[in-house]
Hints:
Layout: H1 11-25, H2 32-39, H3 43-47, H4 53-68, H5 70-77, H6 82-96, H7 104-109, H8 115-138, H9 143-166, H10 173-184
Helix pairs in contact: 1-4, 4-5, 4-8, 6-8, 6-10, 8-9
Amino acid sequence: MVSGESTRLSAQDWARAAVKAIADGGLAAVAVEPLARTLGVTKGSFYAHYRNRDELVAAALAEWRRSHGDEGLAELAAITDPERRLRELLTTVVHSVQPLAPSVHLSLLGDRNDPRVRDAVRWVNRARLELLVRTYRELGLPPDRATARARVAYAAILGLVHLAQTDPDAPHSAVLADEVTTVFLPS
């Protein structure tokens, strides 16, 4: 972003920049001066929206929860055909995984003892798992089996994200998308 008199950043702009910083380096990467440089503004812009770094961290975690929890899943949740919903969900996730790309979710795990982080991760996990469990139930799996399948599918998704962060030779996402849908769609 280029600074200028007409450029005004919102609190959400700062929160989104902080989310990106978290992906790159965990909570420790959320620092006002580096974010201001990245955004092309002065620290004064920050103080127009937040009193301190803790408020920005809280806003960033809320932004991540919103964009990756219930609201971020709304379009997928609205798909009425559960097979199509699961296929779209899995394909979307796999296509979003890029080799060596940072991940907010995985970066936050390094700060999992922070109650704010624990709550945010729990919130996002719950939203994602609820959608997966609902989908597996609609596909005909009994409750216990739907819950177990959802947990295994979600663990595989997080595992793919982890591998992508460390493996520059990860298979092409189209190949993985086909494979993941074959593995996780009930037969």
